[in-house]
Design goal:
This protein is α+β, with helices and mostly antiparallel strands. Helices cover about 20% and strands about 40% of the residues. Strands 2-3-4-1-5-8-7-6 form an 8-stranded mixed beta sheet. Strand 6 and strand 7 form a beta hairpin. The longest helix is centred in the N-terminal third of the chain and has 12 residues. It starts with a strand and ends in a 6-residue tail after the last strand. The structure holds carboxymethyldethia coenzyme *A. The site of carboxymethyldethia coenzyme *A (CMX) has 21 residues, from strand 4, helix 2 and strand 5. The site of carboxymethyldethia coenzyme *A has 21 residues, from strand 4, helix 2 and strand 5.
């Protein structure tokens, strides 16, 4: 499976407003969007850096994936998303290679993109996301 770039890095934060201020202060970046994804129980903020985004993740429910992550680990890097051209094909390929999928089929994530996660238990403790990037379609 080919990946063209890191689509985004997800960072779990306790307070979205404070975290946005910090990234704006350090790098002079501007947050271009805040989006709530209710089925994931998160509120996200985005920064663009070249082809890659930073996605800040604030939990809206302590029982959600980010709430549970912060409770256990505190704030920090939560996942890394790799851009792929065809997500359905990529999922079939990684499953055939023996990696455990969290999402067997593409689903809609932030910014309307098709995404799927691989289970960190089968990928060395790192939560990996595959993200279909329409801009790399040939
Ligand atoms: N990175 C690495 N390991 C993680 C992890 C993460 N982000 N989140 C959970 N884990 C580990 C836990 O540490 C735990 O490990 P141990 O068994 O060694 O203690 C194990 O996974 C189970 O964790 P849990 O807290 O009991 O949580 P669940 O099993 O209920 O869920 C997971 C874990 C990864 C399946 C779930 O968090 C998930 O489905 N994640 C994908 C969706 C997601 O993260 N959504 C938020 C972002 C959405 C977006 O950006 O669009």
């Amino acid at each position: 499976m080919a990946t063209s770039h890191i689509e985004h890095i997800g960072i779990a934060v306790k307070n979205l407003k404070e975290a946005i201020k910090m990234y704006e202060c350090i790098f002079g970046l501007s947050c271009y969007k805040i989006e709530e994804i209710s089925d994931q129980k998160i509120r996200t903020a985005f920064f663009q850096i070249g082809q890659t985004k930073i996605e800040l993740l604030e939990s809206t429910d302590p029982e959600g994936p980010v709430g549970k992550f912060i409770e256990k680990n505190g704030e920090g890097v939560h996942h890394i998303a790799f851009a792929v051209e065809n997500l359905a094909d990529a999922l079939k390929e990684v499953e055939a290679k023996g990696f455990q999928l969290i999402d067997k089929h593409p689903r809609q994530g932030a910014e309307g993109l098709n995404i799927a996660f691989l289970h960190p238990k089968s990928t060395g403790g790192v939560l990996l996301e595959l993200c279909e990037d329409p801009s790399i379609k040939k």
